[in-house]
Amino acid sequence: MTRSHRLSELSFVAFQEVMAEEPVILLPFASQEEQGPHAPMGDYRLTRNIADLAAERSGAIVAPTIPFGYADFFRAFAGGIQFRAETFKSVVEDVATSFLDHGLNRLIIVNGHTTNSFLIDEVMRKIQRERGVYLTSVDIWQSLDAATWAEIHGENAGAARGHGADPMTSVYMHFYPDEVDLTQVRPQPNGTAFGLPVRGPRGVGFGTMTVNMPLSARDANTTGILGGDPSHSSPEKGAKIVEHIVGQLADFVAHLKSVDPRVL
Fold first, then answer.
1. Largest Cα–Cα distance of the chain, in whole Å?
2. What is the CATH number of the domain that holds 99?
3. Which of these, 96, 13, 18, lies nearest to 59 by C-alpha position?
């Protein structure tokens, strides 16, 4: 019988046997948030699938995905589920220490919601101070370098990227093609605040400055598309994006197995 790479499918006895190998554990964290009018809100499924494929390829063990993250600026759109910052940090720490308490130190947080990253950093630093272990984290959507992005999107590389567009729309079209409906996209102008153009949910433009303000995604654009054009998305591009990220993660698993996470 082939051993599963999914923690959720292992008995505690089977996992005890795996522990003897000092495995790398993937901890997927993501979000439930709007992705524009054309795509589902459950984008945590994309992170779950990518982490699962990386674990299968690399021999790592993948933990169940935490589907909610720190996404307060999406609160204006119904259907999203947001953790408070302190709640999110507590969840990250509790998940990580569940493995650290048993001597499993090779942990990779697979982060599928970029706004989680600064809170993940706080937790990793706290754990390093208190336990002497260096956790690792990868922001998967930021792992596409400029050359790979240009190779996938060609002359549309600049126009294609943004919330509500790529990389997620193409990855949705790859994993869940029947759930994406690009006919629902009807572009609207970005919003204003204090009579100034909104530059995303974190602020407005004033001259050459961005003035930070606690805005919502709806303040930025009522469509929920905060940048990028999803008309450039396709299942084929999604497959290339997934392959790149999965390959990078699998290679990093192999590297992490060769080092001691308690020593730089």
1. 65
2. 3.40.50.10310
3. 18
